[in-house]
Amino acid sequence: MGSEKQGFIWLSGLLFLHILALSTAEVLYYEFFVSSLLSFPPSLFLQESQFTKLCSTKSILTVNGSFPGPEIRVRRGDTVFVNVHNQGNHAVSLKWEGVKDSIDGSNELIQPGRNFTYEIELEDEIGTLWWHATSAWAAATVHGAFVILPAANEDYPFPAPTSDQTIILGEWFREELTEANQTIAPGSADAYTINGHPGETYGCSNDTTYEMQVDYEGLYLVRVINAIANETMVFGVASHSFTIVGQSGAYSRRSFTNSLTLAPAQVVDVLLCANQNVGHYYITARPSSGAHITNGILRYTTTSSLI
Ligand SMILES: *[C@@H]1O[C@H](CO)[C@@H](O)[C@H](O)[C@H]1NC(C)=O
Ligand SMILES: *[C@@H]1O[C@H](CO)[C@@H](O)[C@H](O)[C@H]1NC(C)=O
Ligand SMILES: *[C@@H]1O[C@H](CO)[C@@H](O)[C@H](O)[C@H]1NC(C)=O
Ligand SMILES: *[C@@H]1O[C@H](CO)[C@@H](O)[C@H](O)[C@H]1NC(C)=O
Ligand SMILES: *[C@@H]1O[C@H](CO)[C@@H](O)[C@H](O)[C@H]1NC(C)=O
């Protein structure tokens, strides 16, 4: 496969660019760039893949064969080159939700069999953004998180989390969506999903349930993305509350809440402290149209040495 070689070419190309731009930079900066670059693979493959949900199987357009698509992780201030290869049957363009930089060619449709490289120059964006296909019908399955970590010499302006977890709220349609579906009405999905899992409430025993595993007294940075085209979602975890720390690619004033209300395309970063009795708790995502609720599970896996 050419992808490794291509990765290497990108690596050397990016290093070269960066050395040019920062010829006076210290070793520290250089190392940050190398480690940051190694942590994000710069290519995405659009392809048709078979998925079974709600007890029926259909072919959907995916990125790298996964639903939702893979996460891209970078650091504040990075310049990111993402080479998108369209191996699917439809022309698609990607939108980088929340990126301030205007991206050349971002309206251009990538035809089947073609590839296109987005060059994204990050400024002060921090936290969580996301990417998705521009057209509503393709965006239902072609989307993923774009996580921007603090720069190597930066800390979070809040207590450092034990780890972080992305939660993408999505929707699933039994029928195939096509170019005819330029808009999607609220309440028209057959299921809502948490990281691709419809959960146990839809009555199909083959469906899987999303589980987030936590350690007792762990502090988690949870990045919640509403990738549902036309539905405001209410998100919560039983017996737990959240501290909101960021919204749509910026830190925000801290506030406490028991549930999050996310408009379509909205992203909220919260801290969740696993400080309840060891056990498991329902995660819920409820569409405002009143359609079916979906569930996941927050599961405590270990007990702390402190108790
Ligand atoms: C997508 O898949 C390609 C090929 O397997 C891989 O090189 C690349 O790292 C993947 N992209 C992401 C963002 O995981
Ligand atoms: C559900 O799972 C069972 C057992 O794995 C399998 O035989 C069956 O075909 C599945 N049904 C559907 C509709 O996917
Ligand atoms: C398409 O990908 C190839 C490597 O696979 C790369 O050399 C070329 O520059 C890419 N084209 C665009 C328009 O990004
Ligand atoms: C998609 O478009 C078809 C044809 O216009 C229509 O029958 C169907 O209801 C649409 N589906 C959704 C989810 O809007
Ligand atoms: C959301 O639904 C409304 C009412 O059906 C419709 O007018 C609008 O175009 C939809 N928006 C999207 C992004 O699908």
Would you write up a description of this structure?
The chain has two domains: 4-149, Cupredoxins -  blue copper proteins (Immunoglobulin-like), CATH 2.60.40.420; 163-302, Cupredoxins -  blue copper proteins (Immunoglobulin-like). The strands form four sheets. It has a six-stranded mixed sheet with strand order 10-9-12-17-14-15, with no helix packed on it. Strands 11-19-18-13-16 form a five-stranded mixed sheet, with no helix packed on it. A four-stranded mixed sheet has the order 2-1-4-6. It is mainly beta. The N and C termini lie far apart (51 Å). The longest helix has 19 residues, at 3-21. It is built from three helices and 19 strands. Helix 1 packs antiparallel against helix 2 (27-38).
Question: Summarize this, please?
Answer:
This protein is mainly β. The protein folds into two domains: 4-149, Immunoglobulin-like (Sandwich), CATH 2.60.40.420; 163-302, Cupredoxins -  blue copper proteins (Immunoglobulin-like). It has helices at residues 3-21, 27-38, 136-139, and strands at 43-53, 56-63, 72-75, 79-86, 94-97, 115-121, 127-133, 143-149, 163-172, 191-194, 211-215, 219-226, 233-237, 242-247, 250-257, 259-262, 267-273, 280-287, 294-302.
Describe the protein's topology.
Elements: H1 3-21, H2 27-38, E1 43-53, E2 56-63, E3 72-75, E4 79-86, E5 94-97, E6 115-121, E7 127-133, H3 136-139, E8 143-149, E9 163-172, E10 191-194, E11 211-215, E12 219-226, E13 233-237, E14 242-247, E15 250-257, E16 259-262, E17 267-273, E18 280-287, E19 294-302
Parallel strand pairs: 1-4, 3-8, 9-12, 11-19
Antiparallel strand pairs: 1-2, 4-6, 5-7, 7-8, 9-10, 12-17, 13-16, 13-18, 14-15, 14-17, 18-19
The structure holds 2-acetamido-2-deoxy-beta-D-glucopyranose (5 copies).
Residues 52, 55, 206 line the site of one 2-acetamido-2-deoxy-beta-D-glucopyranose.
Protein name: Laccase-14-like
Family: Belongs to the multicopper oxidase family.
Pfam families: Cu-oxidase, Cu-oxidase_3
